[in-house]
Amino acid sequence: MKSFGYTISKDRQIDYDNNDRRLVDYIEAIEPSILICMECGSCTATCSAGHFTEFSIRRLHTLVQRGETRHLRKEIEKCMLCGKCQLVCPRGVNLRNLILTIHQALEKIAE
Amino acid sequence: MTFNLFVLPFILGLIFLIYILVKKNRNWIHAMDPIDRKKLKVGFRSPKLILAIKEIFFESLLHRKMYRKNPLLGYMHMSFAFGWFLLILAGNMESRIYSGLWINPPYYPIFLKFFIHDKNVLPFEIFTVPGFFKFSMDLLLMFILSGLVLAIIKRSHSRWFGLKKTTQHQFTDKVAMICLWMIFPLRLLAESMTAGAYGYGGGFVTQHVGNVLAFLWPLSDKDIAYSFWWMYSLSLGIFFVTLPYSRYMHIPTEVMLILYRNFGVTLKNPQAFISEMEVLSCPRCGVCIDVCQMNTAAGINDIQAVYFLQSIRNQQVVDELVTRCLVCGRCQEVCPVGIHTDFQRITLRESFLQPQKQDFSYLDKEENSPGAEVIYFAGCMSHLTPAIPIAMKKILDVAGVNFLFLDNDRSVCCGRPMMLAGKREQASKLIEKNKKSISVSGATSLVTSCPICFRMFREEYGLDIRILHHTQFILELVKKGRLPLQAYFRKVAYHDPCDLGRGSGILDEPRELVRKIADPVALAQEGKDAPCCGGSLGLLNADNDERDLIIKDALANYLSGDAELLVTACPLCKKTFAKHSPLEVVDVAELVAGAIPKAS
Predict the structure, then answer these.
(1) Which of B573, B572, B567 is nearest to B591 (CA)?
(2) In a structure prediction context, what are the per-residue pLDDT tens digits for chain B, which is 600 residues long?
(3) Which residues of A touch B362 (CB under 8 A)?
């Protein structure tokens, strides 16, 4: 009877013990346009790398917000920097610089 | 007597300057790789030397490129450079004739009038032109002083010289400039006072000025003249000492740079010495400031090539100087010294940005496509503007070209966006992947719709097949009669994409193609002067508003005429302009596809 009905997964985003804000603070200071993202997913839909492999910039955004550096590092290495995402972004997020800044932030902020 | 203590500042300054220059040049030659060193050895004994000297004469002395920019600006530079050069040359001839020796102390020609005050003309001149040297030395001094007057006027009225904005100079530049400006009036005063005190020995200017001074200033005697000789020598000495630390270092460096360039020593990564030479060759004239759209459109006026190069020289490079640049190549195009500002910026990005790992292993699984005669590569950006590949498919089908659409489903990026972000090494994986799929296909021509890819394929891929932008390929098809076209004369404005026009020199083909179908209007800025659309992938760090300002400013160039359609040859330009353009924006391929008669 144990697995009857709904299962509930814990929302990690509000688990403050696991949320490392250092990364997002660093990125926000350098590329504040990350703040205007509304997570519409246009970037992911058009992504060149995303057409070859599982790669979602929207997910990157979430990972940054959660400060999950381990997953982030693996993900971000897939980007080809082609810049299509930036052209389709309806909010005008400076995506190429955001990606470069995330790289930089990962280098500077140790896990 | 041919020595006096006052010559010491000049002599010491000169020795210091020569020491620094010899040291620098020795370092550069040491830093050369053996191939370049061989080029240098061969170059000195080849006709290239004559070409180099010719270029040095025209550019370093006459300042021909400055003349083209603005005649007044050109004259000002020429009067200083060529005038001073002639003054040194004539002075040396004059002093050698006086002393009767082939070798003089170096200060002797400079301060000749202090040592010698001839009442009459030189004995040898009796048989030639009497007073020739006195006359010509005065004339040359006047020539330089006229330039000095212009230089002073230019400080407040730079617009008369074709410069809207001028360089903000640093402290050392100002000190060196003041010394340089002082040299010639002090020479005039020293020579005049000496001539006035003796009552003879001056030329047509110095003698008269000297007489007037002697009349106005009853105290005027040889002692006052002597103090002016000291000041003249001091200004020369201080100028020589500050020269290596100021913008005037461009004078000796540019000469060597022109020499090396003519011998075939080119700027390449990671050879730093020629890059350093370019940095030192920047005279900070500021011609790059007015063409920079970051300045003219977005009001960002501290990152232009002149400040960027200055920051490299001062080792004070900051993030903004490296990342806030369109890499459009406009400054490079107008630079009178021919400094490769784009290359400098990208190279610095490589060392400046953190080493960043990339992992493109997911591309390894990709299978390569079968063969065809022609490969069509649309490029990432063309997938955002599907009308372009659709038009290309129609054109290639109508012309009966046996082609393979290499990136029909999805594109592996060419790698240039990575390179522009300073990730040359990381881009190599993408290059490798694309090269493999191109070579497997066995094609003899590679046609691309994207100027960014086009430039990358040409410059970095080392492919041994023909690489064509689609405008070139379509024009070929039209010329061979394989593509029937129906002109529908509409007035259009053609925008040259940076990487196609300035970057790769493809200016005529797209125009010729457009002219076959429509009527291109004349524009204020076109061809190599065309503005960047503002969408450049080279600009890493600019917010959306700044970009919009650049886009709107660039659009103004195309909207001023009576064009009904904005035509470009780049998917990125198209996408960028479309955001703000009241006119419809189309690619040349779309224009051509629309002009194919229905029957065919």
Answers:
(1) B567
(2) 578 999 999 999 999 999 999 999 999 999 888 888 999 999 999 999 999 999 999 999 999 999 999 999 999 999 999 999 999 999 998 888 877 788 888 999 999 889 887 765 555 565 556 678 888 999 999 999 999 999 999 999 999 999 999 999 999 999 999 999 999 999 999 999 998 888 888 889 998 998 898 888 766 577 888 999 999 999 999 999 999 999 999 999 999 999 999 999 888 766 678 899 999 999 999 999 999 999 999 999 999 999 999 999 999 999 899 999 999 999 999 999 999 999 999 999 988 776 678 889 888 877 766 778 999 999 999 999 999 999 999 999 999 999 999 999 889 999 999 999 999 889 999 999 999 989 888 899 999 999 999 999 999 999 999 999 999 999 999 999 999 999 887 899 999 999 999 999 999 999 999 999 999 999 999 999 999 999 999 999 998 999 999 999 999 999 988 999 999 999 999 999 999 999 999 999 999 999 999 875
(3) 49, 52-53, 78
Q: In A, which residues are within 8 Å of B542 by CB distance?
A: 94
- How much is the pTM? 0.91
Kindly report the nearest CA distance between residue B350 and chain A, in angstroms. Answer: 13
Beta-bridge mates of residue B520: B492
**With an 8 Å Cβ cutoff, are A80 and B413 in contact?**
yes
Fold of the domain spanning B484-594: Rossmann fold (3.40.50)
| Strand segments (E) across B100-258 | none
Which candidate from A77, A82, A104 shows the least CB-CB separation from B358? Answer: A77
**What is A18-108's CATH number?**
1.10.1060.10
Q: Please indicate whether the domains covering B265-352 and B484-594 agree at the CATH topology level.
A: no
d(CA B142, CA B370): 75
Question: What residue spans define the domains of chain B?
Answer: 5-28+47-118+125-252, 265-352, 361-477, 484-594
Count interface pairs A-B at CB distance under 8 A.
Answer: 92
Helix (H, G, I), strand (E, B) or coil at B143: helix
Structure tokens that stand for B472 in this block: 């070139």
Chain A nearest CA to B544, separation (Å): 6
Thinking of the domain B361-477, which architecture would CATH place it in?
3-Layer(aba) Sandwich (3.40)
| ipTM of the predicted assembly exceeds 0.90 | no
Fold topology of B265-352: Fumarate Reductase Iron-sulfur Protein; Chain B, domain 2 (1.10.1060)
Q: Which of A53, A82, A103 sits opposite B413 (nearest CB)?
A: A82
Q: Which residues of A touch B535 (CB under 8 A)?
A: 87
CB-based contact B254:B60 (threshold 8 Å): yes
Nearest by CB: B540 against A53, A92, A96:
A96
- Least CB-CB distance to A46: which of B384, B412, B540? B384
**What is chain A's alpha carbon radius of gyration, rounded to the nearest angstrom?**
15
Domain ranges of chain A: 18-108
| DSSP assignment string, B275-319 | HHHHHHH-----HHHHH-HHHHTT---S-SHHHHHHHHHTT---H
- How distant is the Cα of A28 from the closest Cα of chain B, in angstroms? 13
Which residue of A lies nearest to B357 if distances are taken between CA atoms? A77
Sequence-separated (6 or more) residues with CB below 8 Å from residue B264: B39, B43, B48
